[in-house]
Amino acid sequence: MSQEPERQEMSQEVPEHCPGVSSEKAGKSSACQGCPNQNICASGQANQPDPDIELIKDHLKTVKNKILILSGKGGVGKSTVCGQISYALAAHYESENKQIGVLDIDICGPSLPQVFGVQGEQIHQSGSGWSPIFVDENLSLMSIGFLLPSLEDAVIWRGPKKNGLIKQFLRDVDWEELEYLLVDTPPGTSDEHLSIVQYLKPAGLTGAIIVTTPQEVSLLDVRKEITFCKKVGVPIIGVVENMSGFACPKCKVESQIFPPSTGGAEKMCEEMDVNFLGRIPIDPQIGQCCDEGKSFIKEFPNSPATQAYNGIISRIHKFVATSQ
Amino acid sequence: MEVDDQQISKIKKVFLILSGKGGVGKSSVTTQLAFALYEKGYKVGVLDVDLCGPSIPKMFNLENGVINQSESGWIPVYYDNEKRLGVISIGFLLNSKSDAVIWRGPKKNSMIKKFMTDVVWGDLDYLLIDTPPGTSDEHLAVMENIRSINYSDYSAVLVTTPQNLSVNDVRREITFCHKVGIPITGIIENMSGFTCPNCKDCTYLFTRQGGKILAEKSNCTFLGAIPIDPNLTRCIENGLDFLTTLKDSPCYSNIKEITDKILA
Protein backbone atom coordinates (compact mmCIF):
# COMPACT_ATOMS: atom_id res chain seq x y z
CA MET A 1 0.00 0.00 0.00
CA SER A 2 1.43 3.34 -0.91
CA GLN A 3 1.68 5.92 1.80
CA GLU A 4 2.17 9.53 0.93
CA PRO A 5 4.99 11.34 2.70
CA GLU A 6 4.10 13.73 5.52
CA ARG A 7 4.14 17.33 4.37
CA GLN A 8 6.77 18.29 6.87
CA GLU A 9 8.86 15.93 8.94
CA MET A 10 8.05 16.73 12.56
CA SER A 11 9.90 15.13 15.46
CA GLN A 12 7.95 12.86 17.80
CA GLU A 13 9.68 14.27 20.88
CA VAL A 14 7.76 17.31 22.05
CA PRO A 15 7.85 19.15 25.36
CA GLU A 16 5.17 18.42 27.91
CA HIS A 17 3.53 21.84 27.64
CA CYS A 18 3.52 21.98 23.84
CA PRO A 19 0.92 24.61 22.85
CA GLY A 20 0.03 22.58 19.71
CA VAL A 21 0.95 23.36 16.11
CA SER A 22 -2.25 25.23 15.37
CA SER A 23 -1.84 27.56 18.35
CA GLU A 24 -0.86 31.19 17.88
CA LYS A 25 1.94 30.57 20.32
CA ALA A 26 3.33 27.65 18.29
CA GLY A 27 7.11 27.86 18.29
CA LYS A 28 7.02 31.00 20.42
CA SER A 29 5.94 29.90 23.90
CA SER A 30 8.42 29.24 26.68
CA ALA A 31 7.73 25.49 26.43
CA CYS A 32 8.99 25.57 22.82
CA GLN A 33 12.55 26.35 23.90
CA GLY A 34 14.72 23.48 22.79
CA CYS A 35 11.95 21.60 21.00
CA PRO A 36 13.22 20.12 17.72
CA ASN A 37 10.08 21.41 15.98
CA GLN A 38 10.44 24.99 17.18
CA ASN A 39 11.56 26.44 13.85
CA ILE A 40 8.90 24.66 11.81
CA CYS A 41 6.19 25.81 14.23
CA ALA A 42 7.47 29.38 14.49
CA SER A 43 7.55 29.71 10.70
CA GLY A 44 3.82 28.95 10.60
CA GLN A 45 4.48 26.17 8.10
CA ALA A 46 2.87 23.55 10.31
CA ASN A 47 -0.27 25.64 10.54
CA GLN A 48 -0.80 26.11 6.80
CA PRO A 49 -4.24 24.98 5.62
CA ASP A 50 -4.00 21.49 4.23
CA PRO A 51 -4.66 21.53 0.46
CA ASP A 52 -6.26 18.09 0.76
CA ILE A 53 -9.13 19.52 2.79
CA GLU A 54 -10.46 21.25 -0.33
CA LEU A 55 -10.05 18.01 -2.32
CA ILE A 56 -11.96 16.07 0.32
CA LYS A 57 -14.71 18.69 0.38
CA ASP A 58 -15.07 18.42 -3.37
CA HIS A 59 -14.87 14.63 -3.38
CA LEU A 60 -17.58 14.23 -0.73
CA LYS A 61 -20.07 16.74 -2.09
CA THR A 62 -22.23 13.88 -3.37
CA VAL A 63 -22.53 12.55 0.19
CA LYS A 64 -25.64 14.03 1.78
CA ASN A 65 -25.25 13.19 5.48
CA LYS A 66 -21.99 12.44 7.24
CA ILE A 67 -22.22 10.92 10.70
CA LEU A 68 -19.49 9.94 13.15
CA ILE A 69 -19.97 7.03 15.55
CA LEU A 70 -17.99 7.80 18.71
CA SER A 71 -17.47 6.46 22.20
CA GLY A 72 -14.90 7.21 24.84
CA LYS A 73 -14.74 3.65 26.05
CA GLY A 74 -13.78 0.66 23.95
CA GLY A 75 -15.97 -2.39 23.58
CA VAL A 76 -19.25 -0.64 24.26
CA GLY A 77 -20.49 -1.77 20.86
CA LYS A 78 -19.61 1.09 18.51
CA SER A 79 -19.05 -1.25 15.60
CA THR A 80 -22.08 -3.39 16.45
CA VAL A 81 -24.32 -0.34 16.72
CA CYS A 82 -22.75 1.21 13.62
CA GLY A 83 -23.31 -2.04 11.73
CA GLN A 84 -26.93 -2.48 12.78
CA ILE A 85 -27.82 1.18 12.19
CA SER A 86 -26.29 0.90 8.71
CA TYR A 87 -28.30 -2.26 7.97
CA ALA A 88 -31.45 -0.51 9.18
CA LEU A 89 -30.80 2.61 7.13
CA ALA A 90 -30.06 0.50 4.06
CA ALA A 91 -33.33 -1.39 4.52
CA HIS A 92 -35.17 1.92 4.96
CA TYR A 93 -33.80 3.38 1.71
CA GLU A 94 -33.87 0.17 -0.33
CA SER A 95 -37.08 1.02 -2.20
CA GLU A 96 -35.79 4.49 -3.09
CA ASN A 97 -32.49 2.93 -4.18
CA LYS A 98 -30.50 5.36 -2.10
CA GLN A 99 -27.00 4.34 -1.00
CA ILE A 100 -25.51 3.99 2.47
CA GLY A 101 -21.72 3.99 2.91
CA VAL A 102 -19.71 2.98 5.96
CA LEU A 103 -16.11 3.98 6.61
CA ASP A 104 -14.12 2.16 9.31
CA ILE A 105 -11.25 4.30 10.62
CA ASP A 106 -10.40 2.00 13.53
CA ILE A 107 -7.04 1.32 12.00
CA CYS A 108 -5.57 -0.88 14.74
CA GLY A 109 -8.74 -2.92 15.30
CA PRO A 110 -11.05 -2.91 12.30
CA SER A 111 -14.17 -4.93 13.20
CA LEU A 112 -16.65 -3.93 10.51
CA PRO A 113 -15.59 -6.43 7.82
CA GLN A 114 -16.58 -9.13 10.31
CA VAL A 115 -19.82 -7.40 11.37
CA PHE A 116 -20.85 -7.19 7.71
CA GLY A 117 -19.61 -10.68 6.84
CA VAL A 118 -17.25 -9.48 4.12
CA GLN A 119 -13.95 -10.56 5.62
CA GLY A 120 -11.21 -11.41 3.18
CA GLU A 121 -12.66 -9.31 0.35
CA GLN A 122 -10.22 -7.38 -1.82
CA ILE A 123 -10.38 -3.68 -2.63
CA HIS A 124 -10.31 -2.80 -6.31
CA GLN A 125 -8.58 0.25 -7.63
CA SER A 126 -10.38 1.99 -10.47
CA GLY A 127 -9.74 5.17 -12.40
CA SER A 128 -11.87 7.14 -10.00
CA GLY A 129 -10.33 5.71 -6.82
CA TRP A 130 -10.74 2.79 -4.44
CA SER A 131 -14.04 0.93 -4.83
CA PRO A 132 -15.73 0.10 -1.54
CA ILE A 133 -16.96 -3.45 -0.84
CA PHE A 134 -20.69 -3.95 -1.33
CA VAL A 135 -22.43 -5.74 1.53
CA ASP A 136 -25.88 -5.31 0.05
CA GLU A 137 -27.48 -3.68 -2.98
CA ASN A 138 -27.30 -0.26 -1.36
CA LEU A 139 -24.76 -0.73 1.43
CA SER A 140 -21.00 -0.48 0.98
CA LEU A 141 -18.01 -0.55 3.30
CA MET A 142 -14.42 0.65 3.33
CA SER A 143 -12.03 -0.58 6.02
CA ILE A 144 -8.32 -1.09 6.51
CA GLY A 145 -9.27 -4.70 7.23
CA PHE A 146 -9.51 -5.19 3.45
CA LEU A 147 -5.96 -3.99 2.95
CA LEU A 148 -4.35 -6.44 5.36
CA PRO A 149 -3.11 -9.74 3.97
CA SER A 150 -4.35 -11.80 6.94
CA LEU A 151 -6.34 -11.62 10.16
CA GLU A 152 -3.18 -11.83 12.23
CA ASP A 153 -1.61 -8.80 10.59
CA ALA A 154 -1.21 -5.94 13.01
CA VAL A 155 -1.11 -2.31 11.98
CA ILE A 156 1.52 -0.87 14.31
CA TRP A 157 1.42 2.76 13.27
CA ARG A 158 1.95 5.99 15.08
CA GLY A 159 -0.38 8.96 14.65
CA PRO A 160 0.92 10.63 11.45
CA LYS A 161 0.73 7.41 9.45
CA LYS A 162 -2.82 6.76 10.64
CA ASN A 163 -3.80 10.29 9.67
CA GLY A 164 -2.36 9.76 6.20
CA LEU A 165 -4.54 6.72 5.66
CA ILE A 166 -7.68 8.45 6.96
CA LYS A 167 -7.04 11.24 4.52
CA GLN A 168 -6.62 8.75 1.70
CA PHE A 169 -9.89 7.05 2.67
CA LEU A 170 -11.75 10.37 2.54
CA ARG A 171 -10.14 11.57 -0.66
CA ASP A 172 -9.79 8.41 -2.72
CA VAL A 173 -12.74 6.12 -2.01
CA ASP A 174 -15.21 6.14 -4.85
CA TRP A 175 -18.54 6.29 -2.99
CA GLU A 176 -20.52 7.95 -5.78
CA GLU A 177 -23.85 9.24 -4.43
CA LEU A 178 -24.59 8.50 -0.80
CA GLU A 179 -27.59 9.35 1.37
CA TYR A 180 -25.58 8.56 4.51
CA LEU A 181 -21.91 8.04 5.24
CA LEU A 182 -21.34 6.54 8.70
CA VAL A 183 -17.79 6.74 10.06
CA ASP A 184 -16.88 4.20 12.76
CA THR A 185 -14.02 5.36 14.98
CA PRO A 186 -11.66 3.73 17.50
CA PRO A 187 -12.16 4.48 21.21
CA GLY A 188 -10.65 7.63 22.69
CA THR A 189 -10.08 11.26 21.78
CA SER A 190 -6.82 11.28 19.90
CA ASP A 191 -5.23 11.31 16.46
CA GLU A 192 -7.97 9.55 14.50
CA HIS A 193 -10.68 11.74 16.03
CA LEU A 194 -8.88 15.02 15.57
CA SER A 195 -8.03 14.10 11.98
CA ILE A 196 -11.48 12.96 10.92
CA VAL A 197 -13.04 16.13 12.35
CA GLN A 198 -10.36 18.31 10.79
CA TYR A 199 -10.90 16.77 7.35
CA LEU A 200 -14.68 16.27 7.44
CA LYS A 201 -15.87 19.47 9.08
CA PRO A 202 -15.22 21.72 6.08
CA ALA A 203 -17.11 19.17 3.92
CA GLY A 204 -20.11 19.45 6.25
CA LEU A 205 -20.42 17.07 9.17
CA THR A 206 -24.01 16.26 10.13
CA GLY A 207 -23.09 15.21 13.65
CA ALA A 208 -21.96 12.47 15.97
CA ILE A 209 -23.72 9.51 17.56
CA ILE A 210 -22.11 8.55 20.86
CA VAL A 211 -22.37 4.96 22.09
CA THR A 212 -22.05 3.96 25.74
CA THR A 213 -22.93 1.21 28.19
CA PRO A 214 -24.96 2.10 31.32
CA GLN A 215 -22.31 1.88 34.01
CA GLU A 216 -20.38 4.82 35.38
CA VAL A 217 -16.99 3.47 34.26
CA SER A 218 -18.18 3.85 30.68
CA LEU A 219 -20.05 7.12 31.22
CA LEU A 220 -16.86 8.62 32.63
CA ASP A 221 -15.22 8.26 29.24
CA VAL A 222 -18.34 9.31 27.35
CA ARG A 223 -18.42 12.62 29.22
CA LYS A 224 -14.92 13.16 27.86
CA GLU A 225 -16.16 12.39 24.36
CA ILE A 226 -19.00 14.92 24.71
CA THR A 227 -16.49 17.50 25.92
CA PHE A 228 -14.40 16.65 22.86
CA CYS A 229 -17.35 17.20 20.49
CA LYS A 230 -18.18 20.51 22.12
CA LYS A 231 -14.54 21.64 21.97
CA VAL A 232 -14.06 20.80 18.30
CA GLY A 233 -17.57 21.95 17.35
CA VAL A 234 -19.19 18.71 16.22
CA PRO A 235 -23.00 18.66 16.70
CA ILE A 236 -24.14 15.72 18.85
CA ILE A 237 -27.05 13.81 17.31
CA GLY A 238 -27.45 11.88 20.54
CA VAL A 239 -26.33 9.11 22.84
CA VAL A 240 -27.20 5.41 22.44
CA GLU A 241 -27.10 3.25 25.55
CA ASN A 242 -26.03 -0.25 24.53
CA MET A 243 -26.14 -3.43 26.66
CA SER A 244 -28.94 -2.12 28.89
CA GLY A 245 -30.03 -5.09 30.93
CA PHE A 246 -30.22 -8.75 30.06
CA ALA A 247 -33.33 -10.91 30.06
CA CYS A 248 -32.39 -14.47 31.02
CA PRO A 249 -33.58 -16.67 28.15
CA LYS A 250 -34.66 -19.35 30.60
CA CYS A 251 -36.59 -17.50 33.30
CA LYS A 252 -37.13 -14.12 31.57
CA VAL A 253 -36.01 -12.23 34.66
CA GLU A 254 -34.05 -9.16 33.72
CA SER A 255 -30.63 -8.54 35.28
CA GLN A 256 -28.50 -5.42 35.07
CA ILE A 257 -25.13 -6.79 34.00
CA PHE A 258 -23.71 -3.30 33.69
CA PRO A 259 -25.66 -1.52 36.44
CA PRO A 260 -26.57 2.14 35.81
CA SER A 261 -25.45 3.27 39.28
CA THR A 262 -25.41 6.95 38.37
CA GLY A 263 -28.70 6.86 36.47
CA GLY A 264 -27.28 5.58 33.18
CA ALA A 265 -26.92 7.44 29.90
CA GLU A 266 -30.32 9.13 30.01
CA LYS A 267 -29.51 11.02 33.19
CA MET A 268 -26.06 11.92 31.94
CA CYS A 269 -27.67 13.28 28.75
CA GLU A 270 -29.88 15.53 30.85
CA GLU A 271 -26.90 16.73 32.85
CA MET A 272 -24.84 17.48 29.77
CA ASP A 273 -27.77 18.72 27.69
CA VAL A 274 -27.56 16.28 24.78
CA ASN A 275 -30.23 14.10 23.12
CA PHE A 276 -30.83 10.58 24.34
CA LEU A 277 -31.50 8.30 21.37
CA GLY A 278 -32.51 5.11 23.16
CA ARG A 279 -31.35 1.98 24.92
CA ILE A 280 -30.58 -1.39 23.37
CA PRO A 281 -30.87 -4.46 25.62
CA ILE A 282 -28.25 -7.22 25.66
CA ASP A 283 -29.27 -10.02 23.38
CA PRO A 284 -26.75 -12.81 22.78
CA GLN A 285 -28.20 -13.11 19.28
CA ILE A 286 -26.87 -9.65 18.39
CA GLY A 287 -23.34 -10.84 19.14
CA GLN A 288 -23.97 -13.98 17.17
CA CYS A 289 -25.24 -12.02 14.16
CA CYS A 290 -22.08 -9.89 14.29
CA ASP A 291 -19.86 -12.97 14.45
CA GLU A 292 -21.70 -14.40 11.45
CA GLY A 293 -21.98 -11.12 9.57
CA LYS A 294 -25.78 -11.05 9.46
CA SER A 295 -28.27 -8.23 9.86
CA PHE A 296 -29.83 -8.70 13.29
CA ILE A 297 -32.77 -6.46 12.43
CA LYS A 298 -33.61 -8.63 9.43
CA GLU A 299 -33.07 -11.95 11.25
CA PHE A 300 -35.05 -11.02 14.36
CA PRO A 301 -37.60 -8.39 13.30
CA ASN A 302 -39.75 -8.86 16.40
CA SER A 303 -37.09 -8.76 19.11
CA PRO A 304 -37.09 -5.91 21.65
CA ALA A 305 -33.62 -4.92 20.44
CA THR A 306 -34.90 -4.47 16.88
CA GLN A 307 -37.67 -2.22 18.16
CA ALA A 308 -35.04 -0.24 20.05
CA TYR A 309 -33.00 0.14 16.88
CA ASN A 310 -36.04 1.30 14.94
CA GLY A 311 -36.74 3.96 17.55
CA ILE A 312 -33.15 5.16 17.34
CA ILE A 313 -33.28 5.32 13.54
CA SER A 314 -36.41 7.47 13.60
CA ARG A 315 -34.77 9.85 16.09
CA ILE A 316 -31.72 10.10 13.81
CA HIS A 317 -34.01 10.92 10.87
CA LYS A 318 -35.69 13.58 12.94
CA PHE A 319 -32.36 15.20 13.85
CA VAL A 320 -31.17 15.11 10.26
CA ALA A 321 -34.45 16.56 8.96
CA THR A 322 -34.34 19.49 11.38
CA SER A 323 -30.65 20.20 10.83
CA GLN A 324 -30.96 20.57 7.09
CA MET B 1 16.58 11.97 30.39
CA GLU B 2 18.75 10.82 33.29
CA VAL B 3 17.49 7.60 34.76
CA ASP B 4 18.32 6.56 38.27
CA ASP B 5 19.29 2.94 37.70
CA GLN B 6 19.09 2.03 41.31
CA GLN B 7 15.54 3.18 41.62
CA ILE B 8 14.38 1.36 38.52
CA SER B 9 16.12 -1.93 39.18
CA LYS B 10 13.99 -2.43 42.26
CA ILE B 11 11.05 -3.56 40.11
CA LYS B 12 11.32 -7.34 39.86
CA LYS B 13 8.87 -8.02 37.07
CA VAL B 14 6.69 -5.98 34.72
CA PHE B 15 3.43 -7.27 33.24
CA LEU B 16 1.82 -5.43 30.35
CA ILE B 17 -1.93 -5.99 30.18
CA LEU B 18 -2.88 -5.86 26.50
CA SER B 19 -5.89 -6.44 24.30
CA GLY B 20 -6.64 -5.42 20.75
CA LYS B 21 -10.26 -4.71 21.51
CA GLY B 22 -11.56 -2.11 23.93
CA GLY B 23 -13.95 -2.88 26.75
CA VAL B 24 -12.94 -6.50 27.17
CA GLY B 25 -12.05 -5.76 30.77
CA LYS B 26 -8.34 -4.95 30.69
CA SER B 27 -8.68 -2.53 33.59
CA SER B 28 -10.96 -4.85 35.52
CA VAL B 29 -8.57 -7.78 35.00
CA THR B 30 -5.59 -5.56 35.91
CA THR B 31 -7.36 -4.60 39.13
CA GLN B 32 -8.24 -8.19 39.99
CA LEU B 33 -4.67 -9.34 39.31
CA ALA B 34 -3.27 -6.50 41.39
CA PHE B 35 -5.46 -7.48 44.35
CA ALA B 36 -4.66 -11.18 43.97
CA LEU B 37 -0.93 -10.37 44.06
CA TYR B 38 -1.46 -7.98 46.95
CA GLU B 39 -3.29 -10.68 48.90
CA LYS B 40 -0.32 -12.99 48.37
CA GLY B 41 1.78 -10.45 50.24
CA TYR B 42 3.60 -8.87 47.32
CA LYS B 43 4.32 -5.21 46.79
CA VAL B 44 2.45 -4.15 43.68
CA GLY B 45 2.37 -1.09 41.42
CA VAL B 46 -0.32 -0.32 38.83
CA LEU B 47 0.47 2.08 36.01
CA ASP B 48 -2.46 3.23 33.83
CA VAL B 49 -1.21 4.43 30.44
CA ASP B 50 -4.70 4.79 28.96
CA LEU B 51 -4.50 8.57 28.66
CA CYS B 52 -7.80 9.19 26.88
CA GLY B 53 -9.90 6.85 29.01
CA PRO B 54 -8.34 6.19 32.40
CA SER B 55 -10.51 3.75 34.40
CA ILE B 56 -8.01 2.63 37.02
CA PRO B 57 -8.71 5.36 39.65
CA LYS B 58 -12.40 4.40 39.61
CA MET B 59 -11.59 0.68 39.86
CA PHE B 60 -9.49 1.18 42.99
CA ASN B 61 -11.99 3.66 44.42
CA LEU B 62 -9.25 6.27 44.46
CA GLU B 63 -10.99 8.84 42.29
CA ASN B 64 -10.00 11.68 44.57
CA GLY B 65 -6.37 10.60 44.76
CA VAL B 66 -3.65 13.17 44.23
CA ILE B 67 -0.17 12.51 42.89
CA ASN B 68 2.37 14.30 45.05
CA GLN B 69 5.69 15.53 43.81
CA SER B 70 8.79 14.73 45.82
CA GLU B 71 12.41 15.58 45.23
CA SER B 72 13.01 12.33 43.39
CA GLY B 73 9.76 12.28 41.40
CA TRP B 74 6.05 11.54 41.48
CA ILE B 75 4.64 9.61 44.45
CA PRO B 76 1.96 7.04 43.53
CA VAL B 77 -1.48 7.14 45.13
CA TYR B 78 -1.64 4.29 47.64
CA TYR B 79 -4.61 1.99 48.22
CA ASP B 80 -3.49 0.95 51.68
CA ASN B 81 -1.72 2.42 54.69
CA GLU B 82 1.08 -0.09 54.38
CA LYS B 83 1.80 1.35 50.93
CA ARG B 84 1.99 -2.08 49.34
CA LEU B 85 -0.33 -1.20 46.46
CA GLY B 86 0.40 2.00 44.56
CA VAL B 87 -1.40 3.44 41.55
CA ILE B 88 -0.46 6.00 38.88
CA SER B 89 -2.96 7.27 36.31
CA ILE B 90 -3.57 10.43 34.32
CA GLY B 91 -6.99 10.41 35.98
CA PHE B 92 -5.29 11.80 39.09
CA LEU B 93 -4.05 14.78 37.12
CA LEU B 94 -7.40 15.87 35.62
CA ASN B 95 -9.53 18.55 37.23
CA SER B 96 -12.97 17.09 36.61
CA LYS B 97 -14.40 13.81 35.45
CA SER B 98 -15.58 15.24 32.15
CA ASP B 99 -12.16 16.71 31.30
CA ALA B 100 -10.94 15.24 28.03
CA VAL B 101 -7.34 14.59 27.13
CA ILE B 102 -7.35 15.43 23.43
CA TRP B 103 -3.76 14.73 22.49
CA ARG B 104 -2.05 13.43 19.43
CA GLY B 105 0.71 10.83 19.62
CA PRO B 106 3.80 12.90 20.47
CA LYS B 107 2.22 14.48 23.53
CA LYS B 108 1.01 11.10 24.73
CA ASN B 109 4.52 9.71 24.27
CA SER B 110 6.11 12.34 26.46
CA MET B 111 3.51 11.77 29.20
CA ILE B 112 4.14 8.02 29.16
CA LYS B 113 7.87 8.61 29.30
CA LYS B 114 7.33 10.73 32.41
CA PHE B 115 5.13 8.03 33.95
CA MET B 116 7.77 5.41 33.29
CA THR B 117 10.84 7.32 34.39
CA ASP B 118 9.72 9.81 37.02
CA VAL B 119 7.59 7.76 39.41
CA VAL B 120 9.07 6.78 42.76
CA TRP B 121 7.66 3.30 43.15
CA GLY B 122 10.21 2.17 45.70
CA ASP B 123 10.70 -1.59 45.98
CA LEU B 124 8.16 -3.46 43.86
CA ASP B 125 7.64 -7.13 43.27
CA TYR B 126 5.30 -6.55 40.35
CA LEU B 127 4.40 -3.60 38.17
CA LEU B 128 1.20 -4.03 36.14
CA ILE B 129 0.83 -1.68 33.17
CA ASP B 130 -2.75 -1.21 31.94
CA THR B 131 -2.84 -0.10 28.30
CA PRO B 132 -5.46 1.41 25.97
CA PRO B 133 -6.87 -0.78 23.18
CA GLY B 134 -4.97 -1.08 19.93
CA THR B 135 -1.38 -1.26 18.76
CA SER B 136 -0.26 2.32 18.41
CA ASP B 137 1.55 5.21 20.06
CA GLU B 138 1.02 4.27 23.69
CA HIS B 139 2.14 0.69 23.18
CA LEU B 140 5.24 1.63 21.25
CA ALA B 141 6.09 4.29 23.83
CA VAL B 142 5.79 1.80 26.69
CA MET B 143 8.03 -0.68 24.90
CA GLU B 144 10.66 1.92 24.06
CA ASN B 145 10.80 3.04 27.66
CA ILE B 146 10.94 -0.50 28.98
CA ARG B 147 13.94 -1.11 26.74
CA SER B 148 15.77 2.12 27.53
CA ILE B 149 15.26 1.66 31.26
CA ASN B 150 16.53 -1.91 30.97
CA TYR B 151 13.81 -3.71 32.82
CA SER B 152 15.18 -7.22 32.61
CA ASP B 153 11.99 -9.12 33.17
CA TYR B 154 8.81 -8.16 31.36
CA SER B 155 6.02 -9.96 29.57
CA ALA B 156 2.49 -9.48 28.26
CA VAL B 157 -0.83 -10.80 29.54
CA LEU B 158 -3.51 -10.67 26.82
CA VAL B 159 -7.18 -10.21 27.64
CA THR B 160 -10.05 -11.11 25.33
CA THR B 161 -13.78 -11.77 25.46
CA PRO B 162 -14.98 -15.01 23.89
CA GLN B 163 -16.55 -13.69 20.69
CA ASN B 164 -14.86 -13.75 17.30
CA LEU B 165 -14.75 -9.99 16.95
CA SER B 166 -12.62 -9.64 20.04
CA VAL B 167 -10.52 -12.70 19.32
CA ASN B 168 -9.56 -11.27 15.93
CA ASP B 169 -8.18 -8.14 17.53
CA VAL B 170 -6.17 -10.19 20.00
CA ARG B 171 -4.62 -12.10 17.10
CA ARG B 172 -3.32 -8.73 15.92
CA GLU B 173 -2.03 -8.02 19.40
CA ILE B 174 -0.11 -11.32 19.38
CA THR B 175 1.52 -10.28 16.11
CA PHE B 176 2.39 -6.95 17.73
CA CYS B 177 4.08 -8.75 20.65
CA HIS B 178 6.09 -10.94 18.29
CA LYS B 179 7.12 -7.95 16.17
CA VAL B 180 8.30 -5.76 19.02
CA GLY B 181 9.68 -8.71 20.98
CA ILE B 182 7.51 -8.95 24.09
CA PRO B 183 7.25 -12.47 25.52
CA ILE B 184 3.62 -13.52 26.06
CA THR B 185 2.72 -14.99 29.45
CA GLY B 186 -0.68 -16.10 28.23
CA ILE B 187 -4.30 -15.27 27.42
CA ILE B 188 -7.18 -14.61 29.84
CA GLU B 189 -10.77 -14.95 28.65
CA ASN B 190 -12.94 -12.40 30.43
CA MET B 191 -16.77 -12.22 30.62
CA SER B 192 -17.02 -15.90 29.88
CA GLY B 193 -20.59 -16.47 30.94
CA PHE B 194 -23.34 -14.93 33.00
CA THR B 195 -25.07 -16.88 35.73
CA CYS B 196 -28.63 -15.60 36.14
CA PRO B 197 -29.01 -14.62 39.79
CA ASN B 198 -32.62 -15.80 39.67
CA CYS B 199 -32.44 -19.27 38.12
CA LYS B 200 -28.69 -19.99 38.15
CA ASP B 201 -28.81 -20.79 34.44
CA CYS B 202 -25.55 -19.79 32.77
CA THR B 203 -25.84 -17.88 29.49
CA TYR B 204 -22.86 -17.30 27.26
CA LEU B 205 -23.50 -13.68 26.26
CA PHE B 206 -20.60 -13.54 23.88
CA THR B 207 -20.50 -17.12 22.53
CA ARG B 208 -18.06 -19.59 24.07
CA GLN B 209 -14.44 -20.42 24.53
CA GLY B 210 -12.99 -18.10 21.90
CA GLY B 211 -10.00 -17.30 24.10
CA LYS B 212 -9.18 -20.90 24.75
CA ILE B 213 -9.35 -21.85 21.09
CA LEU B 214 -7.22 -18.84 20.17
CA ALA B 215 -4.59 -19.79 22.76
CA GLU B 216 -4.36 -23.28 21.31
CA LYS B 217 -4.14 -22.01 17.74
CA SER B 218 -1.50 -19.41 18.47
CA ASN B 219 0.60 -21.57 20.81
CA CYS B 220 0.02 -19.32 23.80
CA THR B 221 -0.74 -20.49 27.33
CA PHE B 222 -4.42 -20.26 28.22
CA LEU B 223 -4.41 -18.74 31.69
CA GLY B 224 -8.10 -19.23 32.44
CA ALA B 225 -11.58 -17.74 32.12
CA ILE B 226 -13.25 -15.18 34.36
CA PRO B 227 -17.08 -15.17 34.46
CA ILE B 228 -19.23 -12.02 34.54
CA ASP B 229 -20.14 -10.96 38.07
CA PRO B 230 -22.56 -8.03 38.23
CA ASN B 231 -21.68 -7.64 41.92
CA LEU B 232 -18.14 -6.67 40.98
CA THR B 233 -19.32 -4.06 38.48
CA ARG B 234 -21.79 -2.77 41.02
CA CYS B 235 -19.09 -2.47 43.65
CA ILE B 236 -16.87 -0.46 41.30
CA GLU B 237 -19.86 1.68 40.39
CA ASN B 238 -20.83 2.40 43.96
CA GLY B 239 -17.30 2.96 45.13
CA LEU B 240 -17.27 0.03 47.55
CA ASP B 241 -14.12 -1.80 48.44
CA PHE B 242 -13.25 -3.98 45.48
CA LEU B 243 -11.11 -6.43 47.43
CA THR B 244 -13.88 -7.29 49.93
CA THR B 245 -16.40 -7.89 47.15
CA LEU B 246 -13.87 -9.79 45.07
CA LYS B 247 -13.25 -12.24 47.90
CA ASP B 248 -16.95 -13.21 47.88
CA SER B 249 -17.18 -13.38 44.11
CA PRO B 250 -17.15 -16.52 41.96
CA CYS B 251 -14.38 -14.72 40.04
CA TYR B 252 -12.00 -14.94 43.00
CA SER B 253 -11.06 -18.60 42.71
CA ASN B 254 -10.55 -18.13 38.97
CA ILE B 255 -8.32 -15.10 39.39
CA LYS B 256 -6.28 -16.85 42.08
CA GLU B 257 -5.69 -19.81 39.77
CA ILE B 258 -4.77 -17.43 36.96
CA THR B 259 -2.34 -15.57 39.22
CA ASP B 260 -0.65 -18.82 40.22
CA LYS B 261 -0.27 -19.75 36.56
CA ILE B 262 1.20 -16.34 35.74
CA LEU B 263 3.74 -16.57 38.54
CA ALA B 264 4.63 -20.20 37.83
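Chain B has ten helices and eleven strands.
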